[in-house]
Amino acid sequence: MRSLTSGCPALKELHIEYCHGISALYIESLTLKTLKLKLNVESSSMSQSSVFIKGPTLRCLHMKEHVEHYAICDMSALMEAKLDIFVDENELQVLSKMSSVKNLCLKTHVTSSVLSAAFLDVFTILTFGNLIFLELNVQCAFCACF
Fold first, then answer.
1. Is residue 125 part of a domain?
2. What is the Cα–Cα distance from 143 to 114, expressed in whole angstroms?
3. CA atoms within 13 A on the CB side of 79
4. How many CB atoms lie within 10 A of CB 78?
5. What is the pLDDT of residues 58-83, one digit of tens each?
6. What's the structural domain count of the chain?
7. Which of 1, 18, 29, 70 is most buried by a 10 A CB count?
8. Residue 146 placed within a domain
9. Burial class (CB in 10 A: 0-12, 13-18, 19+), 144
10. By the 8 A CB rule, do 33 and 6 touch?
């Protein structure tokens, strides 16, 4: 995937859906404004894979599904994020890179009380200084705490 984004220096919008057989996505662009990732982990190998995103001009990010490892760098221009993720330490790190976001829609799947506490800590530890809209949809498999 690296050759796709590096070979398109004017690319503004990228949608990637269902990456069967791909174990890593490397997305780096100085021009990308919108990135939408919808990875079907049940039907592919993406649950054991990595996604690296470096987009200093990225303004809109939509991510659905869980992969083993996310690495996100320089999201300072991000204005909107829509995430549908399982909460673990990796995804909490992803949220920490989005502190400049204005609109955040977050659908999470929490599977333990430890992770639910860590998830709640994100909103008490981090400062989302530009946040004007927040939508939370928390599916808690172990309790009715939300």
1. yes
2. 12
3. 5
4. 25
5. 999 998 876 667 778 888 899 999 98
6. 1
7. 29
8. no
9. exposed
10. no
